[in-house]
Every structure is written in C-alpha cells, then in structure tokens.
Amino acid sequence: MERVKIAIIGAGPAGIACGIEAKEAGLEPVVILEKAPHVCDTIERLYRPNKRVDAVYRGVEVEPLGICRFETESKEAFLERIKSWLEKYKLDIRLNSEVNYIKKTPEGYEVTIKGEPQFLAEFVIIAIGIFGQPKKPDYPIPKEVKDRVFFEPPNICPAGGKVLVVGGGDTAAEVASFLCPKCEVYLSYRRPQFFRINPVNLKILEEKVAEGKVKLLLGTDIEKVTAEDGLVRVHFKDGKSDIYDYVYYCLGGSTPKGFLKYIGIDFDLEDRPKVDEHFETNLPGVFLAGDIGVPKGSIQLAFNTAHIIIKRIKEKSKK
Questions:
Q1: Which parts of the chain have pLDDT scores under 50?
Q2: 164 with 27, same domain?
Q3: Which of 52, 99, 114, 110 is CA-nearest to residue 79?
Q4: What's the rounded Cα separation, in Å, for the pair 300 and 159?
Q5: Residue 171 domain-assigned?
Q6: Residue 290 and residue 293: Cα distance in Å, rounded?
Q7: Are residues 215 and 261 in the same domain?
Q8: N or C: which end of the chain has fewer CB within 10 A?
Q9: Among residues 231, 249, 267, which one ends one of the domains?
Q10: Distance between CA 265 and CA 271 in Å, rounded?
Q11: Do 63 and 102 have their domain in common?
Q12: What are phi and psi of 243, to 5 degrees?
C-alpha cells in the first residue's frame, strides 16, 4: 500500500482546495482520489456552456479565508481557473479511482479503491459533494417514459414540446429559463412562492414569466407520474393532471449517507453527518469538506472549509 499524509476523496472545488492548502502548509504526501475521468465532474458534466458559477449563494456574501477564492464567472472561466491552480500547485490527482471503503487500522486509515486496499493515510478528507447523487421523488417513474424524465439539467434544449420543470431552487429556475425559447415550459413548485432562488436567477425567471414564456404552477405537489401514449402524465395532489413531453426534476442533491454510514460516521437527529467546528467527524482524523460538511453552501464556503480543515490537520500533526 502507498503511504500518504492525507488522502482526499473527491477532486471537485472542495477537494482541490484541500490539496492546495495542504501543499502550502507543507503537509506531504497528499493524494486526491477522483472516481470520474476528470476533475470538477459536477461542473464539467451538469453545467451547460457559459452557465454562471456563483461565488455567492442565496445572496449571502462569504469572506474568503484561505488561498482559493474567485468572483462569479462562467463555467469555462472557472474550469480554466482550476486548471491553472492544478498546474501551479502540481497536485497528485488519481482519476478513475472510486473509493469503496475506509477502515481504521493501528497504522492509519486504509483506503480501498475498487475492492483493493491501496493507500494508508494518516488523515482522510471526504470532499465528494452532493450533486453526484440527485434527489429523486418518492413515487416511481414508469419504465415506458424513463427516456422522457430527467434528474439532471439539460445541456441541449429539446427542439420543442411541452415541458414540466419540478423544483423551486436555482437549478429549476435556470432550467426553465434555458428551455423556454424552444419549448412550452411549466414550472411546478410545492410552495406558494420562491425563497431559495438567487436574485439574478429570480430576475431572469420573472422576465420569462412576464413574457409568457414560462408558466408557474406554484403551490402544486405531485402525487404520481404515469405513462400515456408514450408521454408523461403528471398527477397533482389537488386532483388535477396534465400530459407533458418531458419532465425535469431539479430537487437538488443528497448527502451520500450510505457511504458515510458504512464507514462509521455518526449522524445527528436531522440525519446530517456530525462534524465539529473543524469539520472533523467522530472518526479521529476524518474530515468532511464542502457540501457534505456545510449544507447548502457556496463554492467559496467549500474553499473556506478546506482552509479550516488543513489548519486543524497541521495543528494535530504537531502534537
């Protein structure tokens, strides 16, 4: 097995920031393990061309604490920024390396990849994010329409058709605005008004609604989905139903609870992983960075968790 000071799981913004902070703190060797064939998989895969990468989330300004910081910019500019950081700091990133298990041993944490123990780490930082696991509704989706129901934002707009977007956050607003030039778009949200959309996205959405390009279905909750003549019939809890060509669920991501519980991390009464002020879990030396450590945080906040975690690891290394 390869011995390392820190094993970082995930090469998204939080994981990369952890690697940079560790490098600057003189903590070596450090390895970053990423299951995808490229870094920043969520942004690379789910963000369409020229989509904004926001530094601010829900209008809340976050003061940068460490090395990594940025202003709101396009997907392409942000990925170019990440690329320049990787070149500057020469991080050791192993792609196509999905971690299956972490086990505490007398010598450190044994990190298993594809069923084989490959690393022995003194510290482990889990920075796998939440958007790799999109939330799905409780009701089943009929197999006959699985090719018409989506749980990730589209990169290409359908040539036309009647579309239902489900959700009340930034992704739902962006998807509705993106689809409406070519499609008849309806946006269903279970609450009577939006409260989670950032000001820029809300302004754009309101303009589309005023132009009649997006129709809002506020205060609507979906009971089930059925197939009808190859299309999707959506049944609402108020007894109404309608047929759509496509349905896009934008319900956010979910914490990878199964993996975290499997390796022994404790959860609180609200079913969130327990961490202290340094984002350290009940497993000594195992930390959570980014979205799984700070619910519904921004990328800048993820960068800040990296700074806090590495500072703590450096303190613990001196003892």
A1: none
A2: no
A3: 52
A4: 36
A5: yes
A6: 5
A7: no
A8: C
A9: 249
A10: 11
A11: yes
A12: -105, 135
Domain co-membership, 109 together with 92: yes
Q: How far apart (Å, rounded) are the C-alpha atoms in residues 125 and 137? A: 30
Report the relative pairing of strands 99-105 and 2-9 from DSSP bridges. Answer: unpaired
Picking from 249, 280, 309, the residue at the C-terminal end of a domain is 249
Nearest Cα to Cα of residue 292 among 272, 266, 269, 313: 272
- Residue 137 belongs to some domain of the structure: no
Number of domains in the chain: 2
Q: Indicate whether 219 and 260 sit together in one domain.
A: no
Please report the pLDDT score of residue 254 as a whole number.
58
**Is there a single domain that holds both residue 225 and residue 302?**
no
- Would residue 313 count as lying in a domain? yes
Cα 124–Cα 312–Cα 92 angle in degrees, nearest 5 = 45
Q: Are residues 91 and 11 in the same domain?
A: yes
* Residue type present at position 269: L
Residue-level pLDDT at 61: 76
Two tokens, residue 194:
């939006």
Distance CA(23)–CA(21), nearest Å, equals 5
Taking the C-alpha atoms of residue 21 and residue 302, their distance in angstroms, rounded to an integer, is 12
Q: How many CB atoms lie under 10 A from the CB of residue 157? A: 15
Please indicate, yes or no, whether residues 35 and 121 belong to a single structural domain of this protein: yes
> Running DSSP on this structure, what letter comes out for residue 64?
-
- Measure the CA–CA gap between 14 and 308, rounded to whole angstroms: 12
**Pairwise CA distance, residues 2 & 203, whole Å:** 51
How far is C-alpha 63 from the chain's CA centre? 21
SS3 94: strand
The pTM of the whole model exceeds 0.85: no
Query: By residue range, what is the domain housing residue 117?
Result: 2-132+253-318
| Burial of residue 193, with CB atoms counted within 10 A of its CB: 0-12 exposed, 13-18 middle, 19 or more buried | exposed
For the chain, strand residue ranges (E) read 2-9, 30-33, 52-53, 73-74, 93-94, 99-105, 108-113, 116-126, 149-150, 162-166, 184-189, 214-218, 222-228, 231-236, 241-244, 246-249, 286-288
